[in-house]
Amino acid sequence: MATLRGADLVARALARAGAKQLFSLSGNQVMVVYDAAVDARLGIVHTRHEGAAVHMADAWGRLTGEPGVALLTAGPGHANGMGALYNALGAEAPLVLLSGHAPLAQLGTDAFQELRQAEAAAPLCKASWTAQDAARLGEDMARAFRIAKSGRPGPVHVSLPYDLLDAKLDAAQLSLPESAAFAASPQPLAAAAASAILEALARAARPLIFVAPAMAAGRGRRLREALRSATGIPVLHSESPRGIADPSLGAMPDLLGEADLVLLLGRKLDFTLRFGKPPAFDAGCAFIHIDPEAEALRRGAAAIGDPARLLRSEQADAFSAAEALIAGAQHGFRPAVAQAKWTSAVDAALAARPAEWAAPASAEGAVHPLAVAREVQKALAARPQAVLVCDGGEFGQWAQACAGDALRITNGPSGGIGGSIPYAIAACLAHPGAPVIATLGDGSCGFYLAEFETAARCGAPFVAVVGNDARWNAEHLIQLRSYGPTRAIGCEMQPTRYDLAVAALGGHGEHVTRAADLGAAIERALAAGKPACVNVEIAPLAAPMLSRSGTPPGGAH
Ligand SMILES: Cc1ncc(C[n+]2csc(CCOP(=O)(O)OP(=O)(O)O)c2C)c(N)n1
Ligand SMILES: [Mg+2]
């Protein structure tokens, strides 16, 4: 009898789902999947830490809309990947995490690397389970893809016991699920609901639309642009834990209190929107809430409190709902006359940056982070296909405040720092040939520095612009604010030559100590044809404060 291994079923199912490569770090329990990947023509991006593999799958999912697939080994490999799931969950990235697992037959015997993996991943995932039947591994893959892409997209985990992966199955008895079984199940917004919502939006004098984190890039980005042009209503997207105080929103927080109707399109009414309460929003502001999850709608209603202020609450996914609203608006959307003035005021607030930013910024002894952000912006503006990757910390926010319309991947609402190097590698793979620039602090740079070797090996020539202030500055500033200058402790680092480290890892390094040298250094790095680090000695300045509303609870991330 012709046989197939369980691992072959997994690899064939992944290929049928459209996966191109597995972001992985090897280990005993998954080498059989590597072997199966040869026949299924799946590439392996072999990383230097499991967290990097999960971050790469996250960025792949956000940029392409198709789940990135991470393959980790059992026990310690799986455990190492957990932290990175947190970012993917917050960013609503479709992701499938597959982990090797001790054999089912040995569970409860203190087997090698035995761990309750599905339980460990559960709070970080939409769904998490351990496969139970070798012959049904294809169905497990289809279910994982379907859940990752449906409703609010997010990570899904399946643990793959070694005895299932290595089981010899009768090939004649096996069939893979059809392609449709891997696809998202849409939760549409009924046309009648869409037209009622459009009517309410048209009547409002000062409406706003806030979209889901899932609409940051890819299809979501195209839909939010189409929604804006179909309705003329400002469509706001904020992707950091600072939410309405995100530097990319300019002076918008100061105008938000004037909105009379807010449509939440797949967007939770959570801390990023200050729970919809004053002073961020007017106490009389009305809301319409569309969300794929009943629980998010329930929480939204509870946060709003007065039922009269919640005009409608509809269960639908953000993408389907955006499509229904765009289609409805194309049949004739006649906004209230007052909206034109409001929309220009919102556009002006979004674009507002302090006047002093126009003049060359200088800071004593080191480069001002604004000078770096502006040079990055220049490089991006000259390259419409470019992808920007922003890490957290103070420095990352300067870059976000200056970045204009560039397609971007940030650390997202989770606030988790350190993922930008793996994100940038995945961006190079998802957008072959497009320039990719990552901006990150020196602390964030250390998390996955070894991935420069992965990038050199895989041909991912991104440019990391490191704002090096020899500090975990975001936390240092909290110390100064909360405990006073005499109580600063533990947040200093060495002024490290990351550029030399990157050169040693197979990349290109630039060391910049003067603003005047920045532009040429970034251009050389972009032209180097290999992964590059532009290590800039910056002044340790706080992130820009663009509105009068001040720093949100929790400060900078
Ligand atoms: C995974 C994770 N660990 C810790 C933090 C807390 N944190 C937020 S910003 C920051 C400092 C970042 O330092 P750096 O990358 O050098 O940027 P800087 O603020 O100095 O510009 C830290 C430790 C976090 N948000 N995420
Ligand atoms: Mg720093």
The total strand number stands at 19
Helix content estimate: 25-40%
> N- to C-terminal separation?
58 Å
Instruction: Name every ligand kind in the structure.
Output: thiamine diphosphate, magnesium ion
Mean pLDDT: 95
Strand content is 15-25%
Question: Taking strands numbered 1, 2, ... along the chain, how are they ordered across the largest sheet?
Answer: 3-2-4-5-7-6
Cα Rg? 24 Å
Main structural class:
alpha/beta
Largest beta-sheet characterization? 6 strands, parallel
Number of H/I helices: 21
Shape: globular
Low-confidence stretches: 550-557
Structure description:
This protein has 557 residues and is of the alpha/beta class. The chain has helices spanning 6-16, 31-40, 50-64, 76-91, 117-121, 137-149, 162-165, 191-203, 218-231, 253-256, 294-304, 318-330, 339-351, 369-381, 393-402, 420-430, 442-447, 451-458, 473-483, 498-504, 518-527, and strands at residues 3-5, 21-24, 43-46, 68-72, 95-101, 127-130, 155-161, 168-170, 207-211, 235-236, 261-265, 286-291, 310-315, 387-390, 407-410, 436-441, 463-468, 508-512, 532-537. It contains 21 helices and 19 strands. The protein has a 6-stranded parallel sheet with strand order 3-2-4-5-7-6, sandwiched between helices. It has a 6-stranded parallel sheet with strand order 15-14-16-17-19-18, with helices on both faces. A 5-stranded parallel sheet has the order 10-9-11-12-13, sandwiched between helices. Helix 3 (50-64) crosses helix 16 and helix 9 runs parallel beside helix 12. It starts with a strand and ends in a 20-residue tail after the last strand. Bound molecules: thiamine diphosphate and magnesium ion (MG).
